[in-house]
């Protein structure tokens, strides 16, 4: 396997991949905020939630649904700030994965990553983070 990366570049590629994977897992998990409501443990993230209240019209009371799930639509996300956070975090994760996978390919393919490409990739990582 020919590589276009130095030893530091190989370390950067693997650390980039680990950080991108951790960011994506954090984005998809609903454990950003933890608390309790109606004596039940609840948690939610930008577009997922666990144990949320719903109105039961047959019994005329609010009950807790004890399962995890996504919001039904983008507009169902509780606030504009959370919607913006969902979009920005999703784009950041996408950029981080793009750079990380390109860097990992640079470990296997010679002349894929030059000094200029490495600097641009670092800038993209900065924006993605």
UniProtKB/TrEMBL annotation:
The protein's matches in InterPro entries, at most eight in alphabetical order, are given as: LHFPL (IPR019372)
The yes or no answer to whether the keyword Amino-acid biosynthesis is present is no
Q: Key word Transmembrane helix present in the record?
A: yes
Bilayer topology reads: Multi-pass membrane protein
Recorded GO cellular component terms are: membrane
Alphabetical UniProt keywords: Membrane, Signal, Transmembrane, Transmembrane helix
Indicate the transmembrane segments per the record. Answer: 87-109
Compartment(s): Membrane
Q: Which residues form a coiled coil?
A: none
Pfam families xrefs: L_HMGIC_fpl
| Signal peptide span | 1-21
UniProt name for this protein: Lipoma HMGIC fusion partner
